[in-house]
Structures are given as C-alpha cells and as structure tokens.
Amino acid sequence: MQRLMLLCLVLVHLHAGAAPAGVILLWPGVPPGGAAPGPQRDSAKGSITQVEQPYLLVHRPARPNGTAILLISGGGYAHIEAGKESGPAASWLQAQGITAFELVYRLPREGGGVAAPFRDGQRAMRVIRARAAEWGIDAARIGILGFSAGAHLAGMTAVQPGAVLYAPVDAMDGVSARPDFAVLLYPVLTMQRPFDTTHAKKELLGSQPTQAARDALSAERHVDARTPPTFIAQALDDPVAPPENSILMAAALRRAGVPVELQQFQSGGHGWGLGKPGSAPAVWPQLLLAWLQVHGWMAQPAG
C-alpha cells in the first residue's frame, strides 16, 4: 500500500514538473532523445509504461551500511515489472542495510528510441555515485541488479560504462558510470541466433536485424578485463530467456579474467523475483549476500 501511494505521488508530481521526496529525476529537463508523451501508466500489479520522465525511487535503510544497488526490472522492454521485481527486491535490500534505487526507465517503442533505456541506465549510475555522500553511500560499493530484460540493461551498463550515449548535461556526467559489481537474474543478454527468441530482442532490434546490430546489443560480446565482478542466477528450465544467456556471459567473463558466480537451478522457470518460498530460486538472495560479503561489499551498518 505504501508503495502504491508513493507511485501515485510520483504520477501527480511528475505531471506537474516536480519530484516528491524519495524520487530523483534523472535528467534536468527533457531527456536526450525524447520520451513518451505520458502520463505514466501503472497497472494494479505495478507494471509501468508511458514513462515521460525517467527517475529513481530511493529506498534508504534505517542503518545504511554504505552499499548501494541500482535495481532494474524487466518486462521485455515493453513494460517495467516493478511490482514483481524491483519493488520487493528494494524492500529486501533495505532490510539488509543496503540503499536501493529502483530505476524507472524509458521504453524504446514509447519515446527516445532504442538508445533511451541505455542512456537512462548510464545516467542513473552517475547520479547515484555523484550524490553518494548525500545518502551515506561508499562510492566504491555501488552495484547494479537486473531482472530478465532489466538484466540486459544492467549488463550493457556494466560492460560499456564509458560508452558515449549522450552529450553531458551537467557535472554528474563527469562521474564514472561503472558499477562495482553486477547481478543478473534470469537474464536476457545475447541477441545472437539461435538464442534471440526473447521479446526484448524484438523490441530492440525488430525481426530482421543486421549482424552488427545483434553484436552491438549482445552484452557478452563487450566483456573485457574492466567489466565488474558478476553474479548470475538462472533456472535451466527458463522458457523465456534460454539458459545459454547466462552460460555465454559467464564464459566471456572467465575468458576476460573477471570474477563470476554462476548459479543454475534445475527448475524455477522465469520471472521469479525474490523466489517463491520452497522453490529452487528462493535461495538466490542468501547466495548473493554471501557473495557480496566474500568480496567485501557488505560492511556493517553505521551507528
């Protein structure tokens, strides 16, 4: 209920050209490339479309430990499944002392074109890092976590943080957009045949893309030694994103010498969010916490 009330406030304030507390507008004015005409639409289950002004929803824990994570929901780049993915994940992270930021990004067919979500992802990382001190965040412990097509956006942001996607709009664009770690859950990552069967591929590239277009948006094709350490989890019976998405990405990371944790579940399907209690994927939050602790990204809460 609290989240629904916040989203209602977001809609009212954005339409009026302002942002309520806990909401950070990404761009000082019209986003580069344009946006949907609006107003933003939110379904009863928290699915978002018609994003006219991309923004961050800030979830601050009572005792922040200095770690922050940018959350990106999926939805095949046709809608944003915040109600099932980033919303519950933000509440869980908040309980762990992690400051969570939900990204509400532009959809490529609704305004701004194919580049829009990637511009928003890059800008979001820069905004969080530039304002880290304001939120009690360690600027060297800022990660990115994506679900499904949101994992594609997270993955592309992680592998190409320095790509010139837009002209700088303010001083924050001088800050690094590189996540310190990446978390990719039931991810869409490759646009290569025969694994290009996702709705995300259709929304981004259409039915007959060139090989160059496929390569440009296949995250595994851009991995290098500067790519951040990555945690990947997927079910082998995923009917939406072929498991090869995770396998190809993990192999590329290993070749580049980048630490990678690949968790594969025998069952679980797709779109499990935090994971149904008792299901195989339900262990991923605890596996992630252990991974974050091993790598030193989970300091004790302050105070």
Written account of the structure:
The chain has 303 residues and is an alpha/beta fold. The protein is built from 8 helices and 11 strands. The chain has helices at 2-15, 86-95, 116-130, 149-159, 199-205, 211-216, 244-255, 284-294, and strands at residues 23-25, 41-42, 47-49, 55-59, 68-72, 80-81, 99-104, 142-147, 181-185, 230-235, 260-265. α7 links the parallel β10 and β11 (260-265). It is globular. The two termini are 30 Å apart.
Features:
single chain; 303 residues; alpha/beta; eight-stranded mixed β-sheet; three-stranded antiparallel β-sheet; 28% helix; disordered N terminus
- As laid out across the biggest beta sheet, the strand order is 1-4-7-5-8-9-10-11
Round the mean pLDDT to the nearest integer and report it: 93
Order of helices and strands: HEEEEEEHEHEHEHHEHEH
Helix fraction bin: 25-40%
Low-pLDDT parts are 1-9, 11-18
Distance between the termini: 30 Å
The outline comes out as: globular
- Strands, count: 11
Q: Please work out how many helical segments DSSP would assign.
A: 8
**Structural class by SSE content:** alpha/beta
Largest sheet: 8 strands, mixed
Short structural description:
Helix content is about 30%, strand content about 15%. The protein is α/β, with parallel strands linked by helices and about 300 residues long.
Helices and strands, with pairings:
Blueprint: H1 2-15, E1 23-25, E2 41-42, E3 47-49, E4 55-59, E5 68-72, E6 80-81, H2 86-95, E7 99-104, H3 116-130, E8 142-147, H4 149-159, E9 181-185, H5 199-205, H6 211-216, E10 230-235, H7 244-255, E11 260-265, H8 284-294
Helix pairs in contact: 3-4
